Amino acid sequence: MVSNRSSTKGRQRKVTAREERYILRVLPNFPKSLRKVQGELDLNVCKSMIRNVMKRSGIIVRQKMVKVLEMMPHHKTTRLCPTVYLKSFKPMLTKLPLSFSLF
């Protein structure tokens, strides 16, 4: 029995292979926002389609953040109040030897 149907079944894809490559090329420029990617592309696709292309590719994957040490209390104070940190160094500058010149 001869069939006139093509060998592919199901719904056609909204984006072609070329458009998928283009999406993957543009994605790294906007690491946090799929809406910005959607605005940058000249394609008529929604952000969930962009997410599906990203997942299907396997190139761009979610990574676990590297853990770092906690900030010490004196680090927190210098970060929140840098003027206090700078004031603590003024006495050191006045105790320089007379032969030493800053300029």
UniProtKB/TrEMBL annotation:
InterPro entries: Tnp_Tc3-like_HTH (IPR048703), WH-like_DNA-bd_sf (IPR036388)
Name of the protein: Transposable element Tc3 transposase-like DNA-binding HTH domain-containing protein
Source taxonomy: Eukaryota, Metazoa, Ecdysozoa, Nematoda, Chromadorea
Domain Transposable element Tc3 transposase-like DNA-binding HTH: 18-57
